[in-house]
Every structure is written in C-alpha cells, then in structure tokens.
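Propose amino acids for all 137 sites.
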C-alpha cells in the first residue's frame, strides 16, 4: 500500500462534514499526497455551506471547476489519468448547494465524501478531468 491507499482507507467510513471532510478538502488532501502541494493552505476556513459559499465569492470562484481550472491543466487523454487526479461533475452532486462537486480519481473510479463515508462513482459522471501534476500556477 502507498500513502494514497492509506488515505482512501482512512476516509472510507468518515462522514461528510463541511470544513473537515467535504469534497474540496478531500480533493485537496489527495492532491497534496500526490504532489506535496497544499492548495487550500491559508485561504480561510469554513464550517457550513454558507461559510464556504462566502469564501468562494471572496476568492471569485463560482464552481469547483473554477477552483481547479486555475491551478491544473485538464487531461486530454483519459487513459493517462493517475490516482489522485481531480475531477469535477454536475451529475454526481448530492444536493443543490453548488453547481458541481469535486471528486478524486482512484483505481479507475471516482471518489467523493458522503454522509455514509466515501461514495464511488463511475468515470462516466466526470465532466472535467484535471492533471494535478501539471500546474498552471
């Protein structure tokens, strides 16, 4: 097992919670494991949907896509996806809080936190696939 495997194993049963185990922080932790870079360090904290929405407005982000598109290049060949890459989807949303959610590519599936722990999605729900090892910034 590697560090990303350990991370996924640790998160399997951990329920979704804004500010500690939401889709943004889940994706960021996977990215940090894959690249060594923490992209949310120092941007602020949130504890509920309203506080994360306020922070996104302050940072001028309208969606999860905006957060990742400014940082990473998109994959043009999905056969080159690597564990830890980030994906956005409007289809996999569990509620209407945001336009889209972030997921993590892992072993040919997509993962996101849910109230019951990690939820697994097929690659078909992914709309934008980001190569976290190819930085724009």
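Proposal:
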């Amino acid at each position: 097992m590697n560090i990303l495997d350990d991370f996924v194993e640790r998160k399997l049963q951990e329920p979704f919670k804004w500010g500690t185990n939401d889709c943004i922080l889940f994706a960021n932790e996977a990215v940090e494991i894959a690249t060594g870079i923490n992209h949310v360090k120092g941007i602020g904290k949130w504890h509920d949907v309203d506080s994360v929405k306020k922070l996104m407005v302050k940072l001028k982000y309208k969606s999860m896509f905006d957060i990742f598109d400014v940082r990473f290049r998109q994959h043009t060949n999905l056969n080159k996806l690597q564990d830890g890459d980030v994906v956005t989807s409007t289809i996999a949303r569990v509620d209407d809080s945001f336009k889209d959610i972030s997921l993590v590519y892992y072993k040919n599936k997509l993962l996101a936190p849910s109230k019951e722990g990690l939820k697994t999605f097929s690659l078909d729900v992914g709309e934008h696939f980001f190569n976290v090892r190819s930085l724009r910034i």
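The first helix runs from residue 3 to 11. The two ends are 31 Å apart (CA to CA).
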